[in-house]
Amino acid sequence: MKTILIMNGPNLSMLGKRDPKHYGSGTLSDLENACINKGIELGVKVQCFQSESESAIIRKLHTSMGVIDGIVLNAGAYTHYSIAIRDAIELIRIPVIEVHLSDIHNREDFRNTSVIEAVCVEQVCGMGVKGYLVAMEKLVGKYMTDDSSVNALSDAAVPDTSTPEALLGEERKALNEIDKEIFVLFERRMKHIDRIAKIKAEAGMPTQVPSREAEILERVGNSVEEQYSSAAQALMQELLRLSRERQNEINKG
Ligand code: DQA
After folding, report:
1. Range of the domain at 45
2. Which of 101, 110, 114, 124 is the best mutation target for the ligand 1 pocket, counting ligand atoms within 8 Å of the beta carbon and taking the most?
């Protein structure tokens, strides 16, 4: 399955608090959830990433090589002056669609120029959140059809089973693919935890609900083959511990 990365740059974490005339009233989570649902409809995996920092955006672009098949990028204000982001887009050789919620061509003059436009396959602007969904459709329909895209290649590769070393190599390759998927899901899970922590903090509710944790563990134990049941529960216990830790961290901050 192919993967689309939804990347948002500075100040897009503040959607919902920014000028609704340009950016609408929804939050970044609303936007990301709309993209995740679109991904289900299009049959692609969706990874979401947001950062205020130019270096984090560049690093994420670099580490997308060999992992991501298409990128929807709203680089925020960096669009107008970051040659470093432009260069990163150019070197990764992944189709990137530049997206803006507002119509940058009909605002202040300094927003009219995009230094990343020339290295992106298309620019979509002025359509609000819908622009991200349109960009995803374009990536899937027009730019990710090539069989040489990263994940298509690994799906199509004929496994070499001639020696134990080759067999082991194939198994490890499969594990790497699975780990990649696990951590995409892990990141999505942690984002939900962050939102839950905020809701609970605002409502003055406790972080820990032991009855719910017991119920989750039972469900997890029953959802895998019996020989993996206690390992799955141990993993879930660790996830619950990390989630509690994260919620406490957010409540403190
Ligand atoms: C924006 C437009 C940029 O000019 C601005 O700096 C942003 C958001 C948009 O989505 O409309 O932060 O990229």
Report:
1. 3-159
2. 101
Residues 38 and 147 in one domain: yes
Return the active site residues: 23, 100
Residues 142 and 182 in one domain: no
Task: With 0.90 as the threshold, say if the pTM is over it.
Answer: no
CA–centroid distance, 248 to ligand 1, in Å, is 33
Half-sphere exposure of 175 (CA within 13 A, CB side): 6
Burial grade of 48 (CB within 10 A; 0-12, 13-18, 19 or more) = buried
Compute how many other C-beta atoms are within 10 angstroms of the C-beta atom of residue 137.
14
Answer yes or no: is 245 within a domain.
yes
Mean predicted confidence (pLDDT) in 172-178: 86
Mean pLDDT of 27-51: 95
66, 150: one domain: yes
247 and 148 in a common domain = no
Residues 168-178, mean pLDDT to the nearest whole number: 86
